[in-house]
Design a protein that fits this description.
28 helices, about 55% helix, five-stranded parallel beta sheet, 15 strands, about 10% strand
């Protein structure tokens, strides 16, 4: 019997003995074959995966050598010139036989299904045993060496989604058994890593309520409402909304009632002991559109290098920037999952009225939980024990205490602090970040601050290090076509054609949030061939219009006219139709350029373009049909007048982006 462990870096056991799979590319080959066990993997796919799309002329020779070495590892007793039975050659590629192999992926899924069945029939302790056995198999990201390969991404997403569901079901069992405090501890870590999973938030709220913490339970529900509105533009489910009202009304049906037998001490202590093991390996990707993570290898690499510097006592502040929906929060979660060091996170709320230093209270609370044996300064304890009121301590003195506490925790090893959505932080929270930036250079503390692109300079100047160097900035741009295809494949569960990928990239500009919403159309009734003509999804339209609402009114009105002209537009024509002077139109356009909605065409004087086609499309669809028709007539007339004049480096307008009305 050969055993393969793929829920983490690939491992092989032959006859019960752990064997070394070989060099990195050989390990990656084995991980790829295990991920597709029982199916042929073509040589083209293998070469693409091992050499990242650029195989050298000698790649096929190297591949054959890797296969030969793996066969010796997997079948050490096979006689010379006898056919291989584990790793076989097939027409066009190679196949790893799964019939006689024990693969931990299959065992995990079996435990998950057995636990679900036990839960459904009311055998809570058996369900706990099955869930614990399944989660114990996880050592990291599935098929870690090849998790980003397009044919592996859907399987990774499926497994991670099952894992997250198992963690939720396990916490559901803890609540049913009356272990509310244990459930709170597990669910806090889970919800912090996956704030958009509404069932996890529901369980945490219920656990807090049953533990006598009604205010904290309501805060969780307010936070998930804000996250869903900010990141997805949607409201919580009716179930969550009803839970809020039931907690406010102290509905007696929410109280815990014993099952047939009370939980034994062994069950509760076993759950408590497994807390760190289970929550430490939770990946940030899931099977839902909101959780799937692809690409960003360069950004992860930069953050990893910054962490390595911090481990060498060269702590620093790093900024992660991008337009709304670029994936800043997702990147921070992914890095936290992969960092291998404690990560303490704080998020600046937008829709909630947060007390001063609220995100730092989140960070300090996580630090206190992560280092329970380290004394907490009195000023910090006061802040955490009553985070809803104004800090009693002198603010500058409190900054010093917090700075010394966090840098002191890093003396024994590197730590990461993340401040997400810093562009909406309260003044005291920003001043705390500035203070910490001056404390970290000789520590093992890495501070990551995320903000919108248009707020970078406002934050970068205050965060400048004592040496005068501004913090490094990692700007998240649009996903590449390759990453777009991988994202779509992971969400849909199958590959999509190149024309559809091009259409997705063109309309979204590679913005991950916009892409996810558009890809959902492909899951429903929308035919891929018709995709470029599909209307903008409602959540995307709401996000786009919120960005437009932040512009001065003259800018928004000018963009509405420009959207009817098309994604590419001549500002002189648009100004004529809008009845404004060209100098005024150019000045008005500056705010749209600063917001990242429009940029200038470098090749054609006087021409501009919407950075994302979906922005122009959303504005176009928001304008009434009759008004669009009248505007088109005026645009055509203005274009005739404008283009009849001599003007250097001007070309005729491209074909209209949108259908005529």
């Amino acid at each position: 019997m050969t055993e393969f462990h793929a829920l983490g870096p690939v491992e092989v056991l032959v006859s019960g003995r752990l064997v070394e799979p070989g060099a990195p590319k050989q390990r990656a080959l084995l991980a790829l074959l295990v991920s597709q066990a029982g199916r042929t993997v073509t040589t083209d796919v293998i070469l693409e995966a091992l050499w990242e799309g650029d195989p050298p002329p000698s790649a096929m020779t190297s591949l054959q050598a890797y296969v030969a070495k793996l066969r010796k590892i997997l079948e050490p007793g096979r006689a010379p010139r006898t056919p291989a039975t584990v790793l076989r050659t097939c027409p066009g590629g190679y196949l790893l036989e799964s019939g006689d192999a024990d693969i931990d992926v299959h065992r995990f899924v079996a435990h998950a299904e057995a636990g679900r069945r036990a839960r459904d029939r009311g055998d809570l302790r058996q369900a706990m045993r099955e869930f614990d056995a399944g989660l114990a198999l996880w050592r990291g990201r599935p098929f870690a060496e090849v998790s980003g390969v397009s044919c592996v991404v859907p399987e990774v997403a499926r497994l991670e989604e099952v894992q997250l569901s198992v963690v939720e079901m396990r916490c559901e069992m803890l609540l049913a058994l009356g272990a509310h405090e244990v459930a709170v501890a597990e669910l806090r870590a889970f919800v912090q890593s996956h704030p958009l999973r509404e069932y996890g938030c529901e369980l945490l709220s219920l656990a807090l309520y049953r533990a006598g913490r009604q205010a904290d339970a309501l805060q969780v529900l307010r936070s998930v409402r804000a996250s869903l509105s900010e990141e997805l533009g949607v409201d919580p489910t009716v179930r969550l909304q009803h839970l809020t009202q039931r907690i406010l009304n102290q509905d007696p049906d929410l109280d815990w009632r014993p099952v047939s037998a009370h939980p034994t001490r062994a069950v509760v202590e076993g759950a408590r002991g497994s807390l760190r093991r289970h929550t430490a390996v939770l990946p940030s990707a899931g099977g839902t559109a909101e959780d799937v993570f692809v690409g960003r290898e360069g950004a992860i690499r930069q953050l990893t290098e910054a962490l390595a510097a911090a481990e060498a006592c060269r702590g620093q502040v790093v900024m992660v920037t991008g337009e709304p929906g670029a994936g800043k929060t997702s990147l921070l979660r992914r890095f936290a999952d992969r960092s291998g060091v404690p990560v303490f996170s704080g998020t600046c709320a937008e829709h909630l009225t947060a007390p001063p230093l609220a995100p730092w209270a989140q960070i300090l609370r996580a630090a206190r939980a992560g280092f329970p044996h380290r004394p907490v300064p009195e000023a910090v304890a006061e802040l955490l024990d009553d985070a809803a009121r104004q800090p009693a301590a002198d603010i500058p003195q409190l900054f010093d205490v917090i700075g010394r506490y966090l840098t002191g925790l890093s003396r024994t090893g590197a730590l990461v602090v993340t401040l997400d959505h810093a562009h909406r932080a309260d003044p005291d929270s920003l001043r705390m970040a500035v203070h910490l930036a001056r404390c970290v250079p000789r520590s093992r503390l890495l501070v990551i601050v995320s903000c919108r692109s248009d707020e970078v300079q406002v934050l970068a100047d205050p965060l400048t290090a004592p040496s005068g160097e501004q913090p490094p900035q990692i700007e998240l741009r649009g996903l590449t076509p390759r990453d777009t295809g991988a994202l779509a494949g992971a969400i849909i569960g199958s590959d999509i054609g190149a024309p559809t990928v091009e259409g997705l990239c063109e309309r979204s500009g590679g913005n991950p949030f916009l892409l996810r919403e558009m890809i959902k159309l492909l899951v429903g009734e929308q035919r891929p061939d018709d995709f470029p003509a599909a209307p903008v999804p409602d959540p995307v339209r709401e996000v786009v219009l919120r960005r437009i609402e932040q512009l001065p009114r003259p800018s928004a009105e000018l963009l509405a006219v420009a959207a009817v002209a098309g994604r590419h537009f001549d500002i002189e024509v648009v100004a004529d139709v809008a009845s404004v002077e060209i100098d005024t139109a150019l000045a008005v356009l500056d705010s749209a350029i600063a917001a990242g909605l429009v940029d200038e065409d470098e090749r054609r004087l006087g021409w501009f373009r919407f950075t994302d086609a979906v922005v122009a499309r959303a504005l176009y669809e928001t304008t009434g049909r009759m008004r669009r028709g009248r505007l088109r007539l005026r645009i055509e007339a203005a274009a005739g007048r404008t283009w009849a004049k001599e003007r250097p480096a001007v070309e005729r307008a491209p074909a209209a982006t949108f259908p005529r009305t």
